[in-house]
Each structure stands twice: as structure tokens, then as C-alpha cells.
Amino acid sequence: MSRERVETGILQVLHGAGLLFFLFLVAFPFYWMIVASLKPLILLAVNPLDLWLSPGELTLRAYKEVWFQFQFGRYFTNSMYVSAFTVLLTVTLATLAAYTIARLRFRGRIFLSRSILIIYMFPAIVIAVPMYALYTKFGLRNDLHGLVLIYLAQTLPVAIYMLHSYFKTLPPDLEEAALIDGCSRLGVIWRVTVPLSLPAMATVALYTFMIAWNEFLFAFLFLDSPSKFTLSRGIVQIADNINVSQQLLMAAAVIATVPIIGLFLALERHLVRGLTAGGVKA
Amino acid sequence: MMRSARSLGRFTLAQKEQRLAYFLLGPPFLIVSAIVLFPVLWNVWLAFHRVRLLDLRRFHWWTLETTLNNFVKIFTHHDFWPALKATVLYTTGGTLLALLMGLVAAMMVHQRFRGRGLVRATFLIPYVAPVVAVAFAWRFLLDPRGALMTGLLGSGILEQPIHLLGQRPWAMISLIAFEGWRYFPFDFLFILARLQAIPEELYEAACIDGATPLQKFFFITLPQLKLVLLTLVLLRCMWTFNKFDDVFLVTGGTGGTRVVTIKVYDFLIGELNVGAGAAMALVLVFVLGAFLFVYFKWVMSRAEEE
After folding, report:
1. Structural domains counted in chain B
2. A25·B265 Cβ contact <8 A
3. Residues in chain B closer than 8 A to A106 (CB atoms)
4. pTM for this entry
């Protein structure tokens, strides 16, 4: 047999085995998370390797307890509020700014289109110290809107960059026709550009939602009162409570994970395009 | 149409357009200035002043004493060099592992097979899930009484349980493994996109010359991927270097994983010493800046020339 055929054969076997290995590696922690949240703690404590789900022993008790007693219903609403608000503002402001950079003539345009992304290279922890001080000073610290403001600053540069690259690929003819017909610039954006850019805007919306929903550092540093907690903040809170079992914690983790994974799988095509178009800070 | 300086009212069309541009760019510009640029600059100010958290609630915070003590404090701190070393180790290990896993995963998904779309989506999940949720799942799995240790002890591979998240050097190894697991999807996605853009003719020509798959990989694929790999190293190094969440949540800085960002947190929250926290953060920015400078000057510019 030639070297070529030997290598091809070996690689084919490795390909199958490698795929299975990676799939296992990726999926196992999530599978375990679900098992640990459904199985009574005592069974998992006796044998941590007993990871089969048999219908008889499953219980949703942990979910009920976390949702009602530990206020995760509340945290869920807070997370949803912060994420939706961030998405709405980011998409609106980024669309207008990206259109401006892509189409309008103004001084500083070239500088701006080159430097947008430099802004998001600053580390969050460097921003965290002064923002903590500043928010403490102005009473924005224990406030969900303070968080929205921070998430906006974190997502706007990438969102503008992504949308501006997309707008540049659109042919300007339609817009010019609308302008000649007496449409204002804002009218053009609303009637021509936005309808043509819905896929790109969906990408930006998803990306923004993901950043806001998953964010930990600022929610952790800034939120003090439990009524304001987001899911990430709430999970860390109950993890510090010695009376909270592994089962409860994993139920909370599942509650935080399911919406974002569900949304991602539903709109995966969009997000994949968006991730490679702009890059995501993480 | 835009160039004709036809007068409309008091302003030309070009002037009107410029005004509209500034108006539309205004809100994002203000937000980013207030929340990114201003804090970065103020951080420099804070680092050179004697500031405790309580001082900032006072009205005349700008009358605070100027001092170099913050830097003296952090440089003479017994944890300073170990923290820097841990950061470099974590960044190097995490970046390389994620890159290697991303490359292997992309090579596997690049081939056509049934269910490829589903596999690609599944591979991205660790990156999309909330860091808090996956960090706690890993913590329970790696616990001395968790599934992994039970398996290793039960099968006789280990005789004594190892505290994977609290013991040197295992804590750092576990942290790097977590980093690789969570961030390889990012590298995977970019490498896959680049792989799919390599012209098919290159491989066909190699086939005619009788190249084996490994030769094709090393002499065609890898050179074609060079630029994207170097860019990914740059991005991931930068973000891992600045990373706080993952370290804080997975090991909490124990077992030799007390990286610089955790030290910043310790000064700020543990000691309520804003000045020292800001100084430590400044050190982080400087080391990162030096790295970026060298990387751009020596690695990226040369790679782009080729």
C-alpha cells in the first residue's frame, strides 16, 4: 500500500474517533448539569458516576425551589429586562451610527471607521475599578440601568463595526433614488436600509443579547440588593450559601443556560455569520 | 448629488449632511467615551492617588493626596511576581490549547459528512453558555468527590484523590483545560471560515504530484491558515490576559492561579483600596501594551509581508 493510502485510512479512523471525542467533551458538562439538577442529591452523592436518567427517580423539586424560594423567577425577569433593553438600544444606535460611517460624508470619518475596534480592546477589569468608584458616587451602582449603560458601551463598537461592514456591501442606488424622490436621510434608513439589512441586524441583536445575558463581572461587582440580581449574579449568590445543594445550584445553572442556548440553536446561522464578521470579545 | 453645494436655507447640503452625521454619531460616542475612555484615563489618575473607596463618596475627591505609594505597595507585595507569572502561564497555556483544539475541530468539520451542521452548532455551545453556569458544572465535576475523581480512583488509575482545583500544579492545569474547552469554539469558527476559502486547485495540484494528506496539511493548509492563526493568537492572548470571570469562578485564585486581575479585585473589594487596584490594573495594561507592540512589530507585520 502506498503511503498516501495508509495515511488516508488512518486519518479516516481518527476523524470518526476525534469527532466522537470532541462531541463528548463538549456535551458532557451540559449533560451532567441536567442530570445533577434532576436527580436527588443523595443518589449522586452515593455514586457520582451513576449518570443515567431513569424516569422513576427524577424530580423537578430543585427547579421549583430555586424558582420560587430562591427568587430565580425574579432574577430571570431582571436578566431578560437588562438584555432586551440593551439589545433595543444597541441595535437602534448602532444602525444609525453604522449608516453614518458607511454613507455620510463628514470630517473624521476615516479615522472613526479605523478606530472603532480599538475601543473594545480595553480590558473590563481596568474599566471596573473607576466605574465602581464613579457609579458609587452617582448612585448608579445598584441599578439595572447602570448595567445597561455598561453593556451598551461594550457592545456598541462591535455592533457598529459589523453593521457598517454590511451596509457597505449594499448598493447605494436605491437610497439615491429615494433621496431624489424627496425622502429624508432618516427616511431612507428606515424605508430602504433597514428592510434590506434585517439578517445583519438579527445577528447584532443575538450577539448583544448573548453578551448582556451572560455578563458576570459588572453584575457581580455592582448589584447589591437581591431584588436587582441578574441570573449570573444570583447563581454566585446561592453558591455562597452553604445550605444550597449541588442539585439546586445546577438547576439554577440550567435555568440560566437554556434560554441562551435555545436562542442560539434557533438562530445559529445568523450568529455564526455575525461572530466571524465582527469577532466577539470574551 | 451630495457634492453639489446647492444652498438650502442657511446651510449647504454638505454642511447639513455633516451636522446629521455628528448628530447620529453623538449618542454612541458619548456612551463609549463615558464608559470606556474616561474610566481608562481616570484609572491612571486613581493609581497615583491615595484613594480608599470611602474617599470617593466625599465631595472633594479631587483634593486627595498625590502619591507613588500604590506602586510601591503592589511592587513590593509578596504576591506580585507570582501573579504576573501565573497570568503569563495561564495566557500562554489557554491560548495555545484553545488554538490547537480549534484547529483540530475545524479540520474535522471541514470534511463533508452527515450531520455536519449539527456538529458545528454543538461545538459552539461552550462559548455561548453563561460562564457562571459552566464554571460551576466544572467545579462539581472536578471536585475531589466528584465524577472525575470517583472514576479515576475506582478504576485504579489513582490511589489518592487529587484536589484538581486547589492544588499546585493541578489548579493551573485545570484552569487551562477549562479555557481551552470554553474558547476553542471561537478559534474553530474563524479557522473553519478560512479553511473553506482555500482554493480547491491548490489541493488538486498537490494530488497530481502525489502528496499525502499530511503533506497537504503541512505544505498547503497550514501556510494558508498562518495569518488567521496569528490573528487568533493575538486576540485570545489579549482577552485571556485580561480575563477575570473564568479564574474567579473556577479556582478563585487558589493553587497558584492568583492572576493579576484577581489581585486587582483583591485590592479593590478585599481591601477597599481603590488606588492600589487602579495601579495594579495599570500594570496589566502596560504589560499587555508591550506585548501587543512587540507582537505587531515582529510577528504580524512580517507575516503580512510574506
Report:
1. 1
2. no
3. 17-18, 21-22
4. 0.89
